[in-house]
Amino acid sequence: MGVKQILRAMDAFPRAEEHLLQKTKSGAFVSIVGLVIMSTLFLHELSYYLNTITVHQMAVDLRRGETLPIHINMTFPSLPCDVLSVDAIDMSGKHEVDLDTNIWKLRLNSDGHITGTEYLSDLVEKEHKHETNDHLLQSSVRTCSTLNRSVYLFFVALHGLQTGLSGSVTVPGNKFKACNDHKDHHDDSDNKTHMQGFDQDAENLIKKVKQALAHGEGCRVYGVLDVQRVAGNFHMSVHGLNIFVAQKIFGGTTHVNVSHIIHDLSFGPKYPGGHNPLDGTERILRGASGTFKYYIKV
User: Fold this and answer.
1) Distance between terminal CA atoms of the chain?
2) What pLDDT digit, counting tens, does each position of 45-72 carry?
3) Which InterPro entries match (predicted)?
4) Where are the domains of the chain?
């Protein structure tokens, strides 16, 4: 018994014998139309099943006391980690300066490679000493001091040194090791900074940042920032430096290079297929300074 006969045997509906059938053109037309309709419906349902439909809905969020996680991964190729800081302001009146939670900074050399794995912290000193530290210090160009600090980061909106750079020049929790090389030169520099009224922490910070700038150091900042579910803004600045310290370090506003690359900037839990419009954004300045502002609705 062939396959055709087997399939016919499985048919539960009785069929009339061939000599009792009369084939007509109208019957053939009805059969063809029926097959076309069935094929069309089948293809439509298959397409509906395979395709993804995106539905946009807007509703009022009635939850209170919950935070929104912001995932950040950015590179600043021309600013040392020691001067990067973030301030946050929201409509509820909350104002935080130099945030520090779940965000880390990694020093980069002039080629963009990580030169150390220590976490840097402004508010809480987190010293992580590794066996490779000695090798890194020897291979670098006479790195004279160590600084362990970490900064909370969000948007890049660098304010010029001439606008509102104020506050204490004392950096809490930082301990430096001064170099013994060129002692006479350093003593002379110390005398000059003392004459200008800088305290010891400010003097050490100036030396540290100048050395990092001379070596072409940058900074990679990554982590998660938790914010309230209200409108607000975050801006990156040069560590909220006292204007005199900032002028001593950079020598002018045009020398503050805020070039940056946004590797990841997303809001809320990670969602498959989600598109983050600022991912991959590059803003590179050459021989100039500037301010970059990003406006996002979440």
Assistant:
1) 68
2) 999 999 988 888 888 877 777 888 888 8
3) Erv, Erv_C, Erv_N
4) 23-51, 69-283
